[in-house]
Amino acid sequence: MKTTFFSGLLIVTGLFACQPNPKTESSATSESTSQTASASFITLSAQEFASKSTSGTVIDVRTAGEVAQGKIADALEIDYYSSNFLDQVSQLPKDQELYLYCAVGARSEEAARLLVQQGYTKVYHLQGGIQGWSQEGMAVVR
Predict the structure, then answer these.
(1) 124 occurs within a structural domain
(2) Domain assignment present for 77
(3) Is 102 part of the annotated catalytic residue set?
(4) How far apart are alpha carbons 73 and 141 in whole angstroms?
(5) Is 50 exceeded by the pLDDT of residue 106?
(6) Which of 32, 59, 71, 100 makes an SS bond possible with 108, Cβ 3.0 to 4.6 Å?
């Protein structure tokens, strides 16, 4: 009984922890802006991400194990959980367009906030992560 309860609790907690922040969603359009004190990043649908990301750098912020399951073509792999995440990203110009994604969207949203705080001015985040990307029929490479 306890095992079933704790298993259910773990699943429910995991589902809610990985959901994108509803404050970044806009009812008027799928493209929305999340703001910090003085700067913001933009959340894009899979279709918007596909069409706009060709003008910038796509960054997969997942772990190497997750990336091995497939990624968006030509994406840089910079693990958000790695201790040198900011060191790796700092190699990119702060005014360059950066398109971030993760598994379901929560981690890349967190990474986008961090980059904006670091002074990056053109930061975009994929709503739903690579899972949403795949559900929309977009290509994934291994």
Answers:
(1) yes
(2) yes
(3) yes
(4) 6
(5) yes
(6) 100
